[in-house]
Amino acid sequence: MTSEFEGGVTPSSILLVDDDPANLLALEAVLEPLGQRIMKARSGEGALRLLLEHDFAVILLDLRMPGMDGLETAAAIKQRAKSRHTPIIFLTAETSLRLKSYEYGAVDYVVKPYEPAIVRSKVSVFVELYERGQRILQQEARLRQKEIEALQLQTRESRRVDQEQQRLWLETILDLMPTPLLFVHAETGRVHFANRASHELVGGKLPAPPEIAYDGTPHELTWQTNDGMRTFVATGAEIPQGYGHEAMRIVSLVDVTRLKQVEAELQNAVRIRDDFLSIASHELHTPLTPLKLQIERLQRREQTPTQLQEKLAVVGRQVDRLSNLVRQLLDVSRITGGRLRLTPEEVDLTAVVRDTADALSSESRQSGSVIDIRGEDSVVGHWDPTRIEQITSNLLSNAIKYGQGKPILVQVSHDNGNARLSVHDQGIGIAPEQQARIFDRFERAVSVRHYGGFGLGLWIVRQIVEASGGQVTVESQVGHGSTFTVELPR
Ligand code: ADP
């Protein structure tokens, strides 16, 4: 189809075929008022050539031409599919050929010499027919185009609806997943979609994409979340462009905060256990050397009663030390196994403190610390006497051990329903950051090289005090001493 002019059709073409140029010119002049494009050929072959490239509304064909005559040309025109339906008007001087011309596909004929108005009128009928045909074809083409466009629009719309539904379906699934997932736009780096778990993580806000490589390697990162800083293992992957989607990156986040904590706790527990084992072997071994020595001496020579007493006193002290250590170990397994049973009876706390100070008199003498007991003469309550003795003994031993030979002040008092025991020394003191820790199992704030001990005394004190419904606290300043206070309901 020829190109379309705005609001109309292209002027149709008329082909004039005549071997005589004068005839061609005359005919052109006759048809010019029709305002159509006129093409001319001076032979049948020339006409066929033009027909290869052009469409014509009508062909005016001279019958008598040298070479290929009009009838042969008409036959050739009718043979070609492209020009089969192009109307041919024969020009002839011989009326005898009239009938023959119809056989060769003519739609009309004009007898020379012709009347110009008649020729013009005949030609204009075919031009109009042609143009009408063209208009119908164009309308059809326009209709078809519109149909195609409507169909395309419909297809696009239904595809959009399909995609939207797919997206909603996918988002619903991703929102149900407990793992935080982020879809990051590959080009802009902005978060394209974050599932509900991710939103919950950052309090409904859009999370920032983490800076990781999107190659499937797990990355550990800390993130500010609703729950404070948390540790995650983030894994990223590239999703190439496809299925109507741009290139994306997906990040999945696994919260390992608790795992990390447990890992650190476990490592710490292992470290504490290892430290304890080395301290325990050292502590249990230490009394054995003087013990062995005294026993050897006792075996070797005759002893005077005084010498005997002295040596037995050393043996006795070391045995006490050993049994105290073993008792602590037994207490650990008893307490952690939930078998700390208290048998309360009437106990005088002041009396227990005095007895303990007496029992520790040789240690305090050795260290140089004088124990001064003040307060109420008697503070009676309902407690387990053995355990109360353990509390006073542990606190007083510590005051002697860490008291640097300076005086120790023990105060026993009561107010309302509570008894209070405070043990104050003027020794090495405890740094603020250590003060909470020392009540934990095996925790120590001093080096084993300087001070022996299992790191169990204060833990045992706290366990007993808390099991009795009371509390134990410490106030201390490094270099200025410590005050341990126990409060017990009576
Ligand atoms: P230990 O057997 O090590 O003395 P404890 O549980 O009795 O175990 O004490 C824990 C830690 O608390 C000690 O290692 C020490 O660092 C600190 N501590 C306890 N009592 C005192 C005190 N009176 N003055 C200074 N430090 C103390």
Automatic annotation (TrEMBL):
Q: Name all Histidine kinase domain ranges.
A: 279-490
| Protein's organism | Pendulispora brunnea
* Catalysed reactions, as listed in the record: ATP + protein L-histidine = ADP + protein N-phospho-L-histidine
UniProt enzyme class: transferase
Question: Per the UniProt record, which EC number(s) apply here?
Answer: 2.7.13.3
State any single GO MF term: kinase activity
Domain Response regulatory, first and last residues per copy = 13-127
Asked if the Swiss-Prot or TrEMBL record annotates the protein with the keyword Ligase, the reply is no
- What name has this protein been given in UniProt? histidine kinase
Q: Which keywords are on file for this protein? A: Kinase, Phosphoprotein, Transferase
Q: Does the keyword Isomerase apply?
A: no
SMART domains per the UniProt record, alphabetical: HATPase_c, HisKA, REC
Residues recorded with modification 4-aspartylphosphate:
D62
